[in-house]
Automatic annotation (TrEMBL):
Protein name: Pectin acetylesterase
Family: Belongs to the pectinacetylesterase family.
E.C. number(s) listed in UniProt: 3.1.1.-
Enzyme class: hydrolase
GO process annotations (BP): cell wall organization
PANTHER family noted in UniProt: NOTUM-RELATED (PTHR21562), PECTIN ACETYLESTERASE (PTHR21562:SF81)
Cell compartment(s), UniProt: Secreted, Cell wall
Keywords: Cell wall, Cell wall biogenesis/degradation, Hydrolase, Secreted, Signal
Repeat is among the record's keywords: no
Pfam family, one: PAE
Amino acid sequence: MAPSNVPAALLLLLLLAASGPLRPMLSGAAPLEPVAVSLLAGAQEKGAVCLDGTPPGYHLQRGSGDGSGSWLLHLEGGGWCSTLKDCSGRRMSVLGSSNFMKPLQFAGHGIFDSDEIYNPDFYNWNKVYVRYCDGASFAGDAEGQAQDGTTVYFRGLRIYEAVIGELMEKGLANATQVLFTGCSAGGLATILHCDDFSARFPQQVSVKCFADAGFFLDVKDISGERSFWSFYNRVVQLQNVRQVLHKDCLANKDPTECFFPTELIKSIRTPMFILNSAYDSWQIQNVLLPSSSSPEKSWLSCKDNIGNCNSTQIKVLDEIRNTMINDLKVINDKADWGMFIDSCFTHCQTLFRISWSSPTSPRLGNKNIAKVVGDWYFGRSQGVKEIDCEYPCNPTCNSLPPP
């Protein structure tokens, strides 16, 4: 099975887009209006189009007060497509066509929340949620022919460049501080584009990158196959992502290797924060236990809920954790980088109030994610690098919603 299922956080946002405004907030305040979709101007002329040829979209909510000059840009996630058939199929969904994009509710959604209580550092910033409709982490530049003879457009790189260009004209060029983020496949996109994005601003502007659940691992599945590497290899070849890969990596390694964050972070110069679970539910379900590995019944139960895993299975999951921790060691030598690696069975933690900042959020060093990220961005504390102990050591993980 191609790992293209929608992460839980993204799914929630899509459901909200379909169902309209949220119920009243926990604080008792009335819900804010959903944020409309802005379609990219001149998309066809720029060749910056979704898989079906429609213009890409984004949601822009203007900042206020002392946040008027600050910008938060978030790249949406949603898996990848690695074959013409899969990519053609995505054209009939929000992940491949702007025809299905609806207004989104930012209120109550973690780092997008406008409530100062729950999002104290970024609540009044200009916020942009960039929709994902190319299937290759905003990185490809190619096209193909579907079985029905129509064109499938792999234009993620052009979408990224054109959307950033349009936002520059709408005030981003005058920003005093910027946080460039993304979740899941959007988290990988954030890593891929981090240095290019920061290079668009004068040196005095504070530009930092923040990847949520985007640290995908090159590990074997339970059958011993590198099935996820093979999947990434098909994405790289089909969608031609080579242009966004670091040249120093390409000089020594295969392009597919250079598409993995383990290699990418070695070359990035811009300050970055990595937020990930060491027991990432999406990676356990799709990288370690894809359907192609034919997991037996006990593994299927473990795959659905880490609480069902036996001690032998937990040891296998611990090996995944150890691989991630080892791959992240390079960050220890980057003084202006940060990380929050918890042990929660979850995926994408910035888009939920319950995981971003609430009384029941995951905590490391007695700080929740919002506090640690804010301390890192604003330089309020040194060495913001938090790594959790092994599952099931952290009781604050119990409050997270199902993945």
